[in-house]
Amino acid sequence: MSITVRIPTVLRSATGGAATISATGSTIGEILAQLASDHPGVQPQLFNEDGTLHKFLNVYVNDDDVRYLGGLQAPVADGDEVTLLPAVAGGFA
Amino acid sequence: MTRYGSVLDLIGNTPVIDTSVLSPKPNVKIWTKLEGRNPAGSVKDRVALSLITTAEADGRLIPGQPGQTLIEPSSGNTGIALAMVCRMRGYHLKVVLPSNVSIERRQLLEVWGAEIIESPGSEGSNGAVRRAQQLAKDNPDWVFLYQYANPANPLAHYTTTGPEIFKDVPEITHFVAGLGTSGTLMGVGKYLKEQNPDVQVWAIEPPSGEMVDGLRSLEDGYIPPIFTDNNGFEMLDRKVVVRPKESLEWTRRMSELGLFVGISSGAIMAGAVKCALTIPDDQEAHIVTIACDDGWKYLSTGAWTDDLDEVVERAKRIIYF
Fold first, then answer.
1. Domain residue spans in chain A?
2. What is the DSSP letter of B64?
């Protein structure tokens, strides 16, 4: 199963400049683990020391935040797009 | 009653319109609360009034005493609402505003005499928050109400927006609103879930983290303190990104219903439609959304009249949400 992962600018130094990466897996946890094993510099940017998602990293499957879809257990399917974005102050405040 | 003593008495009690014609499913109704009806033009009037009256009640601000200065980061609407209230109360307001907001937001701030301090557009609202925090630290005599962390922000929605929604649409099953400071979602969400724990709360956000290219590392990230203080991760049931193109398309569709609303309102409607699509055919649902402001402040972006693809490219460079 091929999943496209979109890498934000702030993480690209750890992925050799790549803006998108292909990964395989059936859950977000598997996708991110593969990303971290292929690009070890990314590991501390994706996960806290206890293995949970970094608090300032938002992960979306097809624009849906995975924290509300089961977190690292959130399922992904062939053709899905996973987007990583830094949590920033945004919006119409 | 349509006779009032002060413009501030016009804040709140905004109308709700049946916008179900935009719903993709006959069993799902979509209701839109028109916050552009507030006197300074947005949902933020509620927040500005609450921030100021709370600070007056606890003595941080003294009405009528000359020489009081406030500092606040805002991409527009909170600044505009605060500018109106501050002008009426005699306070001097400094707004830290990202350089890439629409010209009308800047002009409205000037109408009410606010002083604008620019922060780099590439840093988005994040940059404005940091700059304001630093300025507040360097100038301890300035009053920093800090809408991102001040409980008076969600409280305004807990005491006004939430009860108004529940009174007008007691059948509500889903509440869909934009995520900025998280004040609307936390305040309304808390009130609605207290009335009916089954109400689902959906947050809609623009792809901010993609647009902010001034970020040096993930450690520069930001989660509004009121989001964590109100257990936002538990409060929200879903959080969805809506991209500029969809936001503009739905802003235009809303105009076909006579609703001239801002671009974030289109984004939130796009989110409400996504929400509707998750509801089974045999289940009746009532989604309530917020139209945060009207379209006036975005006319210069060409959002309704220019070629859609051109406006999308333009929207990526400005803060419209």
1. 3-86
2. T
How far apart are the C-alpha atoms of B121 and B133, rounded to whole Å?
17
Give the class (CATH, top level) of A3-86: alpha beta
Confidence bin at A1 (pLDDT 50/70/90):
low
Q: Please give the domain boundaries of chain B with CATH numbers for all domains.
A: 7-37+160-317 (3.40.50.1100), 44-144 (3.40.50.1100)
Question: The whole model's pTM is what?
Answer: 0.95
B73 CB neighbours in chain A (<8 A) are 89, 93
Report angle CA B274, B29, B180 to the nearest 5 degrees.
Answer: 50
DSSP annotation string for B159-179 = IIIHHHHHHH-TT--EEEEE-
* CA A3/CA A75 separation, integer angstroms: 11
Residue type, B144: F
**Above 80 in pLDDT, residue B252?**
yes
The Cα–Cα gap between B43 and B160 comes to 11
Over range A55-67, report the average pLDDT.
95
The answer for B 96-115 residues in CB contact with A (under 8 A) is none
Are A91 and B208 spatial neighbours (Cβ–Cβ below 8 Å)?
yes
Whole-number percent of chain B with pLDDT over 70: 98
**CA distance, residue B6 to nearest chain A CA (Å):** 25
